[in-house]
Amino acid sequence: MPDQLTKSARSFPSELASIRDSRLFVRGFAEGWPFSAGRLADIELATSELSTNAVVHGAGDSFYVALEGSRLGLSLSVTSSGSQTFPKVRRPQADEASGRGLLVVSRVGDTFSVTQTSKAVTVSCSFEIIGQPPASTPPVPAPGSSPRLWSTPCR
Amino acid sequence: MPLEVIPPLKVTPTEAGLHVAGDIDASTVNALASHLQPLPGTGDVELNMSNVDFIDSSGLQVLIKAHQNALDQQRRVVIMEPSSNVSRLLELSGLSDVLHIVRTGN
Fold it and tell me: Complex ipTM, two decimals?
């Protein structure tokens, strides 16, 4: 697991097929961190919900997925254009769908936030790594000691 | 050998209802909805979801609608052997006690 902050980001065209593509992108990144299979599935779920909202409710041709990972965990942000606040008032059914999606994200992530400017909306969530993070550097043998094998730290 | 295009979601009618396999999200949900509107058959509709690799709230929405339609007809939609993804979403949405779910422990 990398010791420093690792970032990755991609924009996706605002179309339904991008929802799955964004899941694959995020999954590929998240697999570099010591999450359980269940937690990786949660991260995929959050991605899908946020991307769906961006495609269905965002303005513009594309939406943006940003990832940051460190030994503390992973954060996921999805940004879409538009000044509409969640939930929208005019279309109740659409509101319910996006509201339900955000509810899932707020429950599955360890943190949840919505940031809105006049031009864009960013919804973020994070997934903490619980427990002792593995050592990132192997132990250094004392000078003069016999050479020995040390195991690579497990993820 | 010709390339085979595998659709992300496969819905197969069964004697008791439907077998649903693959990913259920906003891009595939219409395929599932079309098999549930109207509800197939006349009695309980069994949805085998053991091979659902992914589901999000778009998919859940279709299940909720089918559940409500069934109630209107004094029938039930029963989720059979939900995969871990399905169970997780039902648990997160608080619907584990609302929708009919059958798990036969093997």
Answer: 0.93
